[in-house]
Design goal:
Radius of gyration: 22 Å
Distance between the termini: 71 Å
Low-confidence stretches: 1-7
Structural class: mainly alpha
Strand content: under 5%
Helix content: over 70%
Strand order of the largest sheet: 3-2-5
Shape: globular
Amino acid sequence: MEPGNLTGVSEFLLLGFSEGPELQPFIFGLFLSMYLITVFGNLLLILAVSSDSHLHTPMYFFLANLSFVDICFTSTTVPKMLINIQTQSKVITYEGCLSQMYFFILFAGLDIFLLTVMAYDRFVAICHPLHYLVIMNPRVCGLLVLVPWIMSILNSLLESIMVLRLSFCTVLEIPHFFCELNQMIQLACSDTFLSNMVMYFAAVLLGGVPFAGILYSYSKIVSSIRGISSAQGKYKAFSTCASHLSVVSLFYCTVLGVYLSSAAPQSSNSSAVASVMYTVVTPMLNPFIYSLRNRDIKRTLMSLMKSISFSGTSSTY
């Protein structure tokens, strides 16, 4: 394949999951359902946190931010795929592809950082309960959200610049349902050494270091819980971080599974299917995990449902 001039690249083809037209309606319905559940579930969680003054605490502040990021994370990839299925077109413009990649990296990074911040919040709450409100004051909470935004924006900008400097071949087919960074680099015909080094360095620094922070926080949490004498006290302490631990396990296990599957000698289509787990399924399940395992969230959601049903009933008279 002959290298193509970067300025001549106008569009890419997103191959998606299946070439068979008979499966497209099923894929469209499945992803539309998951997307709507993700958006409405996370919006409901944000509404619950914002409407109940009892939930105006650092833990729920970070949870509301995570829900917002999850909506944006899923909205970066799924709507474009649904449009392509509906219009029976696999085309995405060069600018659209770079924009999608930029925002995907941005919100993926924010997801990782917020999960780390939430682990730190649980560490302070369980290991230093008497100083919790002093340590996790509004200024600190604001910084713990602002700094991840700044770091994610800078990282996403750097990764995008690395792709901008690449030249692409004449075959511009991406065997994925979105413009994934690794797939973009593999398509390039120019030297990709620097781009690969930046990608791997960012993955270790912005993925591995937060994960190490989460492991450290939970090692301290487990050590602190073991020091509690009563079984009821241990259960109460563990229940405050069980939801977060479930979400962290789901997110990191699916991401690890994707990259292990992409390294294995199998088709890229398998990697695309595996990517659905952390790009769509995990953001969809987060509201259910937090609402089903959290008594405060369940109580607030029930109150919201009663208010909505009461207002709907009164409006009919």
